[in-house]
Design brief:
With 401 residues, the protein is mainly alpha-helical. The protein has two domains: 6-251, Rhopdopsin 7-helix transmembrane proteins (Up-down Bundle); 286-399, Homeodomain-like (Arc Repressor Mutant, subunit A), CATH 1.10.10. It contains 18 helices and no strands. Helix 1 (6-33) runs parallel beside helix 9 (219-232). InterPro entries: Homeodomain-like_sf, HTH_AraC, HTH_AraC-typ_CS, Tscrpt_reg_AraC-type_HTH.
Amino acid sequence: MLFFNVENWAMFVDFILIAGMSLLFLLVVFLLKSNTGFSKKLLSVFFINSIFFLLYYYAYLHTSRPLGGIAVLFGSGSGFLLGPFLLFYIRSLIQPLNKVIKPLLVHLIPFYMYWIAISLPVALSMVFGLFKAYHTQYVQIADYINLVENAYFLGYIWMSFQLVESIRKAREQTYSFVESSNLKWISYLIIGLFCIVVVDSFFSVYELIFPRIPWNIGTLIAVALILLYCVLGYKGMFQSQILLPHFLLEEQASSNQKPLKNPKVKAESSIKPVRQLDVFTPREIEGLKNKLNELLITKKPYLDESLSLSQLAEELDITDKKLSELLNQHLHTNFYNFINDYRVKEVKEKLIKEGNEKYTLLSIAFDCGFQSKTSFNRVFKQKTGMSPSKFRQLQDKTTGP
């Protein structure tokens, strides 16, 4: 008799489901009881919905119709619910509450319709025996509805991915250090959700073509969700707000829009937005460049590890938008790369200077404005083509006896 038979699989799934629901419940309690912002409340919806999603498979495993009905009532239609919540959770990290809550409620209209048309009657059928004929008809087309739901979810996953990319680019225009709170965990969460939705769609297509498997194939999706939230979900509890200038977000949003194909509006769509430095003469632009370079050489503000675009603009006595335009349009770089160019140059000068052999690479990096070993090594190699240790070895050979 094989050890991994149907009975053992059921016991394994039972343990995973109970452990997963318990863990998600603890995360929800932590999020709701802690003094957190609105974005954390949005994140808690992911965990709450997943608890009922897992409860459905637990009820299926134990053939409990009342539990299944409760799970369907609060956990069905996840794609219509979590898609908008994913997008607006990310928006809540960069926008105030009043710009998030009303649009979110509008985007949830398909979920309201699904809940009234499917979740409620199916749940009543499972718990009280009502709407049995309706429930039977729903089962006939459940896989087709699931495919529509998954397609809807994938659309929001794509929009969420684009928004994260826009935030990443805007952060590089604003901060000289972007490794902390860089939303990388959300990128992994988006990729994980994409894979799960694609696999779930494959299962639905499979069940439309082939006979159903005796055990619920969806339990694999449930296990995958538990693993995804365990690995990445908890990081959201420590995600802080991201402060970004509004004009940068608007520029990123407009750059992501596809050009219009209608020839009647082609001329209008090709009009370039008015920039503040457009009224400056070439001589004035060169004067700004020289003033910026002199400021960086004399005062070395880049040594401040938390230097931001607005801080440097204040030192330069111009607006942050003008400084951003100067870097992007006239120096063809962004704030992050621009400042790190000076930091790498400072590190190289210190490594070449005699008497600095007693200092470690990391201490020199921190003195020059870098905040972590990882970012220092990555940026230095990107700018010079070699690692900091390799550069130091070459300098030792050059200056050695």
